[in-house]
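Researcher: Re-running this chain for the archive, since the previous output was lost when a drive failed. Same request as before.
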Amino acid sequence: MKALLIVVAAVAFLSPAAHAAPSSIDDYLADVMHDTGLPGLSVVVTQGDRVVHAAGYGEDSEGAPVTADTPMRIASVSKSFTAMAVMTLVEDGRIALDEPVADQLPGFVMADPRFADITVRHLLNQTSGFSDTTIDVTALETATSPADYTAKLSDGSLAADPGTHYEYCNVNYDLAARVVEVASGRTFDDYLKQHVFGPLGMSRSTVSRDDIRPADGYNSVFGAWLSRPELPGFHSGGGGVVTTAADMGKWLISQNGNGAQLVSPEGLRAMHTSSTVDEYAMGWIPDRGPDGVEQLVHPGNLFTYSAVQAIVPSTGHGFAVLVNSASLHDPTYDILNGLIALSQGRDPAPADGGRQTFELVLGLIALAAIGLGVLGVRRSARWARRRAGAPAWRVALRFVPLLVPGALSAAYPDLISILVNGRTVTWAQLTYFALPLTITVVVAALAGLAVATARLLRLRATVHTG
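Model: Regenerated structure tokens:
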């Protein structure tokens, strides 16, 4: 009973307190920072051709205050910029949207002959047939450039006929970045700077690793934030953009058809329109918010940074939420929905997400596994004496529950892969944002294995001495 009271008290302590309805965006975000415990957050809200709010909260891992000009990794939000780069070249006549990629990209070959039917539109709509299940994504992560990345696709195959099936796969947009390079004769980074970032005045945006560098981000480990460098990997058209909240404001204004325009209204509309196969458009996802209002969104998650952007065409609003952390629960969508609610005169829902409570529960499970493991090892001799002379099959059944956590641990990456629709998941990745769950799974496996080993050794000793 005492232990239960301690758990209840801890959960109550970590749960956010109720707040009065915020009267401003700043008040709301102050509540968010208090409730979520996020280390750093930057936000921009736009309407029409103006920035309504752009600010930063908290600190980066180097102790500097986060501002609207703090560089942040935006992960897959980058896809909308890649789509824009492609569309500028489509309207310039240098990329054919509905012609095969292979005809426009020398060096692009695959073992699967269906690759010849993949069009540029298929890449942007993620209907090419590319899948983490049929391509060695781990090998692609070692690529040093879009050209090298393209060459590494030669042994891959497709999961479906091009144009018939939607599957989210970064290969689509990383390959699209290479199409941009070949069509423009410039590096992907240079093209974005000169034809996307530059015209919009996004002077603090890049995809170059040697250019503007954000500070290390954070992972949450049983409620505490741990600063860590981003996991190495190839980040280009699918997730390589580094930008700021202030720069994102200029992007969102343009995406709503205001301010500087990079493509025609027809081109912008094409990027915002779902494919005939799925709702996914071109770097944007048409959606309906909690209020039922149509909006376009796209999230982004790396291993130490998270982000989300949205535009609401009917009101001309734009929103971007950037955080320098990654955890089992991504709060950016909750914060986004809160900002949208404020823009519509509604009270935002709390944005706590339960990170602290969930990780507390995982921590308690890990501690319980350790305690039971120690107890099981200490009592293994008594356990063995009680079962001496019992049928072997009955004794063997007693070991099954102890070995189940180990089996789950061995299959852990594959199980998580199933939960994320077949996307490749490695042990290295699971030691980042999923670290509390990973620790709990491994601790439970080791505890079960320790008890099983101790009981087996004691049982053998009992049999021999008997």
